[in-house]
Amino acid sequence: MIISLIAAVGKNHVIGANGDLPWSLPTDMKFFSKTTRGHHVLMGRKNFDSIPEKYRPLPGRPNLVVTRKTDFKANDIDVFHDIKSAIDFAREKGEDELFIIGGGEIYNQTIDLADRLYITHVDAAPNGDAHFPEFDHSTFSVEEIASYSKDDVHNFDFKICLYTKKH
Predict the structure, then answer these.
(1) Rounded to an integer, what distance in angstroms lies between the CA atom of residue 91 and that of residue 107?
(2) Start-to-end Cα distance in the chain
(3) What are the tens digits of pLDDT across the range 105-121?
């Protein structure tokens, strides 16, 4: 099973601020949805809670939520208390590519497991309290998937890249 991390990341590694995204990039949200649809998505509880209620759980994909809260429950999701159990669950269900979708703490704990990184590089350095971890770029090959300019619906320039671990 391929383990992929997918994130939009500012130049300062910021990915979130106060439980929200620090930018509006509808085309990137469509890319995220199209790329992850039909696959298991693994996220932390805070990230799950930050998803607007009308989109929770994320439709068209099994949602795996990792939390330390032993009493946490939500409809139509699978809850785990450690990342390994969630990954094993996706593998047992026959998943071919598991998407880890955040937040910062989950990315920190899984960056070394990643076979692929789908990174949207946002041309911004916003203030934030959630960060994407540093990683050794030399261990990945990189391919630019798409590039977009700031316009009336995208408040920053951004490019989407796929990093594939070299073996």
Answers:
(1) 19
(2) 15
(3) 999 999 999 999 999 99
* Integer CA distances (angstroms), 9 to 1, 22, 56, 115, 126, in order: 25, 10, 22, 18, 10
Quickly name the fold that domain 1-39+106-167 has: Dihydrofolate Reductase, subunit A (3.40.430)
Q: What stretches in the chain show pLDDT beneath 50? A: none
Domain positions in the chain: 1-39+106-167, 40-95
Give dist(CA 66, CA 157) in Å, integer. Answer: 32
Q: 0.85 cut: is pTM over it? A: yes
The tokens 């209620």 sit on which residue?
Answer: 53
Q: Can you read off the two tokens belonging to residue 117?
A: 């990184």
Q: Any idea which residue has 């998943």 for tokens? A: 95
